[in-house]
Specification:
alpha+beta; about 150 residues; 3-stranded antiparallel beta sheet; elongated; 8 strands
Length: about 150
């Protein structure tokens, strides 16, 4: 008896033999999850995380359950940015009257200064009821915290 080996084309797998024909089906593509990403980024590597007091700490992650923790970050700067965003959200909640959604978002202008602009779409960022309230947030937090929260630098 002779043996013939047939290899499925790339991206396909054996399905069935029908009427003497070998039928292949396309492999189901596995959907990447956050857990996959976190394991790739953090497992077996030094990982920065936001500690309970909001500071950046580092450790080596080996266990999968540690890799997928939502407070893991790729750098100290990323933790600092997350804390700046959280501070901005807290100040916005404190400054804005309850139930008032506001219309003014923080923005860094072409000169690198923070300003409040009328914005119909906040894109998930904290918004304020008026420009003076936004200015008060800058006074409370400082311009550097606002800039860190708003920039793409992490």
């Amino acid at each position: 008896m002779k043996t013939v080996t047939i290899t499925a084309p790339e991206g396909y797998e054996f399905d069935q033999i029908k009427d003497g024909d070998i039928i292949f089906k396309e492999k189901k593509k596995r959907i990447v999850t956050y857990e996959d990403v976190a394991i790739e980024l953090f497992q077996g590597k030094t990982t920065v995380y936001a500690s309970s007091n909001g500071t950046a700490s580092a450790w080596n992650t080996h266990r999968v359950d540690c890799c997928i923790a939502s407070n893991n970050a790729t750098s100290s700067r990323q933790v600092e940015k997350l804390m700046a965003i959280n501070k901005l959200m807290n100040v916005a909640k404190w400054l804005n009257p309850k139930g008032d959604k506001g219309k003014y978002a923080m923005h860094i202008n072409d000169q690198g200064c923070v300003e409040a602009i009328l914005n119909s779409h906040s894109y998930g960022l904290p918004i304020f009821v008026d420009p003076p309230t936004a200015v008060r947030a800058v006074q409370i937090l400082g311009e550097n915290v606002i800039k860190l929260a708003l920039t793409q630098d992490y």
